[in-house]
Design brief:
heterodimer, A: four-stranded antiparallel sheet, about 30% helix, B: about 1200 residues, alpha+beta, nine-stranded antiparallel sheet, disordered C terminus, Phospholipid-transporting ATPase (chain B), transmembrane (chain B), translocase (chain B)
Amino acid sequence: MGKEGGCGQNKTMVKQEQELANRPDNTAFTQQRLPAWQPMLSAGIVIPGFVIIGLAFIGIGVALFITSKNIQVMEMDYTGFEPDSDCFKCSNPEEKNCVCQLDFNISSRFEGPVFFYYGLSNYFQNYRRYGVSKDDAQLSGDLDNFKSPSDTCSPYDTDGIKPIVPCGSIANSMFNDTFLLYREVNGTNELVPLDGKGIAWWTDYNVKYRNPNVTPLKEAFEGTVKPLFWPRPAYELDTSDPNNNGFINQDFLVWMRRAALPDFRKLYRRIAQGDYARGLPAGNYSLKIAYNYPVLSFQGRKKVVFSNVSWMGGRNDFLGIAYLVIGSMCVFMSIVMLIVYAKFKFPEED
Amino acid sequence: MNRHRVDSLGPDDEVMPYSDDETDDELEASSEEEPEVMPGVPKLYLILFSVSEMAWKVKANDRPYHQLPEFQKKVFLCIKKSRYSGNDIKTYKYNVLTFLPLNLYEQFKRVANLYFLALLILQIIPDISTLPWYTTLIPLVVVLGVTGIKDLVDDLARHRMDKEINNRKCDVLLDGGFQDLKWRDIQVGDVVRLKKNDFIPADILLLSSSNPNSLTYVETAELDGETNLKFRLGLRVTDEKLQEVHQLAEYNALIECEEPNNRLDKFVGTMLWEGERYPLSLDNMLLRGCKIRNTEACHGLVIFAGGDTKIMRNGGKTRFKRTKIDELMNYMVYTIFVLLILVAAGLAIGHTFWYEEIGADAWYLFDNKNQGASYRGFLSFWGYIIVLNTMVPISLYVSVEVIRLGQSKFINWDLQMYYPDNDTPAKARTTTLNEQLGQIEYIFSDKTGTLTQNIMEFKKCTIAGRSYVNLETLKTRPVDWSWNRQADRKFTFMDHSLVARIRSGKDKDANEFFKLLSLCHTVMVDIFPSGELVYQAASPDEGALVTAARNFGYVFLSRTQDTITIKEMEEEEKTYEMLALLDFNSDRKRMSIILKFPDGRIRLYCKGADTVIYERLSPNTRHKETTQTDLDVFANATLRTLCLCYKDITPAEFEAWSRAHKEAQVAMFDRDGALDRVYEQIESNLMLIGASAIEDKLQDGVPETIATLAKADIKIWVLTGDKKETAENIGYSCSLLTDDMQIHYGEDINRQAHRRHGPQTSRQGKKKPTEPFFPAPGKNALIITGGWLVSIDFVDMACECEAVICCRVTPKQKGNVVSLVKKYKKAVTLSIGDGANDVNMIKTADIGVGISGQEGMQAVMSSDYAFAQFRFLQRLLLVHGRWSYIRMCKFLRYFFFKNFAFTLVHFWYSFFNGFSAQVAYEDWFITLYNLAYSSLPVLLVGLLDQDVNDKLCLKFPKLYLPGQQGSLFNYKNFFISLFHGIFISLIIFFIPYGAFLQTMGQDGEAPSDYQSFAVVTASSLIFIVNLQISLDTSYWTFVNCFAVLGSIAIYFGIMFDIHSAGIHVIFPTPFTFTGAASNALRQPYLWLTIILTVGISLLPIICIQFLHKSIWPSVGDKVQQTLEERKKPPTFQRGQRSRRSAYAFSHSRGYADLISSGRSIRLRPSGRGGPQSSIREIPQREAENI
């Protein structure tokens, strides 16, 4: 303002603005006129949509179902609940260091790689108080927590005098049956090599669980006691491989990753070495089980599972069937909707 | 109550006693008979001497007096304080120190916040702490913080306002001289001096003023919204003796008066001075909030200060209003509480059994705690209360507040509710009631200033049988007034022929017509130094007529007690001697003036209602028929008409009449009657000149708005202080009444009630249900006067009518009508008004709307919404109200759903984890679910959603109906949300359950671990709730899109962060899900599980919605369908209608008394006995103004 010519005009404009000082802004947002798309559930979208989704689901379902059917699974209960079963003798808790043997036959080649799982039923690893009964700081190698474990570990935090490492119910109840698989080759039993490396999550092995930076590892555990139910202290979990000890022991890691449901399987070993990389050939096998873990007291079951996997993982028919059912329902409902729509959109009289 | 009244003929609306004392009791008192009021003795004086009311004592110029122990009241324990408040006002709630404790205290008064505090405490107890403390603390802190900040901002604004007002300056007499003090330092008993245009700082007794007779004009716009000036008079004794400062300093009267109260129309007290007692009334009072006008200076004594003043008492406590949805929501939260307790108890029992059966034997679960199964069940109960607490959504209340705030902002921002003429935007003063706007069933509207502009326009006239029309539709330029220097430039007139005739001077009748208008009135005039004339009229009608006369060349210049000076046609000024002024009253419906012309002729001019004038016309008057025809035409155009006539009187005749008049003036008994009879004598054999027609100008768009609102099934009642005829007239002109309606009048209620109850049935007897009052089909309308507004019968009858007009109602009655309808009809009500007389109903109704932008602020201050024009109401209700309601309902339905779906997964999981209160998700997910992952999209739906745009909302008012029926959110919807939530939670749990039961990962690792399961359920949930809100969103802006995608992205972002290696290394204990997300979401199998879960959750909903829409389409769906078919907007036609009495005159008596009596008004001998009778009957007039 101030220049001749435009001056008067400017003044009136300024004046007008002052007069309308309270005038709200005229923007799309303040006037609720934002550009918008107003989708309608119109028949033209919904009915073809349902058909397409239905067909897609059926397709996925078929693929899943076929894949699932092609996966070989062999599951064997070795709890020894029935008196005539092989492990019945071991089911008595008084029996120490009991070993039982499970013989089985594979009629056709079990395609590799084969995974060897142990499974527990009616076992509540997802029980809340059980689940929190551990000390994450201790398990990540914090030596302070070696000396004074967290309260959450109670009653497995100390044995009364010395702290327990690793503390807590989960660690204390670690699964301790061991298995040896033999194949009958020409009348003799040949040990099938089991690979226990890399059966735990990479993050658990490398990040979440760490041994204290003390060598030898044993010194770190000085002044602590092993969990009450453990036969050996943590630093001696794997006598064959010194690097597979402490908190990064693979079996320990697998056990510590608690299951979501009371029936669960945990990976025990891979069968992927030597001749068995392509799978288990047909033939007779025997499984030697060091039966240590009591489950009958709480009506639990133990089993071993051999399985191979596909792109979708292990065998599970549920998902395939569910997809097929939902897909068919979609197609069916699209027909129902079409009829209803036709009836109400174009009434007979009108 | 008042039964004898109902049974008798009923109150005549013109003589209804109008003191509020009566109406006060009318609805509250049960069956007590009215005290018999002595005829002619206003109640005021009866009360005046009842001692009990005189508890307030004020001593002039004596500050210590008011600190005497007898005037102390207990404040707190033994701390005592003077009962007289100081003049500082305090509307703020907090100061620096008290903000935190007080605000927290206020917030924890809310049940929801208290509940979460209790939860927090529960979570600290280790035995039952199933969730870490932060899951509750973080949301609670956020919620408290947001609310606290909002309160703080509000309070700061109040601080500023208070400071501004308290620091205004005023002259106070201290130590013998006037000192400039701040308002806050004024005390009761102080003598103050006020100058022209000052705001009055307290309730002040007027002592003297610079005008003669201590006449002081005040503008009461802030109090009652009326812009015409009122005058106040000091007592004669104070006026005479208290003009000088030293006199004022020695003034030491003791005032005894009523205790502070909120009655703006009543004040009683006495002044004890120099041994004599003088009565005081409202006439002597200057109330806080008014403005001094046209008076150089005046002196007064402060009677009530600060919080004791009438305006503050009035504005006092605003009733806390809640919406229907609020109540419903609270009940639903209670329902959820009950559900929560039941579910937790059920699960606790489950745990007890499980522990006995399995848990006790499971050696691996041994916890060395010697607790029995029942005790464990008990602990588990509390554990589940904590786990399932998210069923009661913590963020519900704060989200609702945010949405309402946003909707209020949209109202404030709406350009289509902005009135550029006085630069007034709409304002939502309450931010908690928006969705209620979508549920209104009854509107109660004030008339003056709300429906009408309170501007009277001289529209038409008929002079000697020839009619002149002033319509904008005539495509001519308005008359040029430049020949007339005194003309009011704002006045426009279209008919050039009239001006031409007058200027030519040939049409004697036309000249006489305007001469009459310039002489026969009670208008007062002010001449500004610039020479501009400003008329002060008792009613806008008179102002309009005199202004018209002024522009047509008959300029009213000045008046004295007995002369009137006018200027005729730019010639010399002429002074007429006023021999008598026969003032208007509501019985006479006319006023006359007897003038002695400069040439000695004596002539009577009279103007009045056609009905009364026609009876008194001389048999040889001309143009009777043509004028009558014109009057009919005017009346049909809903104009307010007046007939003008004159009569020449011989001096002898006048002498005789004058004697009779004087006698009547001093009559001791029934003076009014005597005067009326005398007036009657002279007002006969009149010669008709013509008639004027004035338009009570409606606000813009009023008829259209009323028609639209009526189509939305909103019943509109007009409550007005006006007379029946005026009100009916306005009813027609604003299309509230239409010709196809059958009009019923107040008297009918009597007959109808009789027919229903039989003559001797008691009113308290049981009501016969559902018998309609109006058996005849068709539309009905009711016009009723204040006195009838007492019974439930009235409500029943009125609610059967399409339109109701209540005339001559007092403010109190207005409020009572509203509360009657609220009480008996359980309906949502809205009141709209502009003046202090509407404050009562504005506060009573569920929603109060004030018309802002005019000078009066009282109505606006007590309103919930304020805007400048009545027509904005349709936009407020049909657009903003409807949207707000739909948005809020959508929001609530979804919000409940989303929390059920979220929380109940824990419930299903319980069956598989030994009822151990193990949660199905990660703790951090629980903490952030309501805050970050699912709230933004629904918040945006609550803010932005529109099913149809604003134009369609207004075009199809039927779209408003679902709100009135409350059909979008009720218990049915709540349970649908509940079952929807249960359904979704079932799917979210059991699909992954089935998938996890026996599976292995792609690489053979077991993915069936708890953490992967938690990731899958949480991811499914996030997809489902965000896609569900996408389905519910009917207005997709980029913001919505952004929010939905953003929420999902934020979920994954935060999850991958929390599950990352880095954060675990830094905080190993709180972040234990390391690697879970990356491990789980690597598996195609789990993705397929998530897709399936989402599909099963959403597809049935889409299917049901589609089928529902096809089979039972909603109003909105139909509108979309019929949109193409119906292009024509409904045309609004005004049919022929019968002749209505359109008599209109001032609302009240004129200033005649003041004019004609001058100083002598007080000296007139009293016919009524009371010492006050010399002062005019202000109470009645006041009431009529309302």
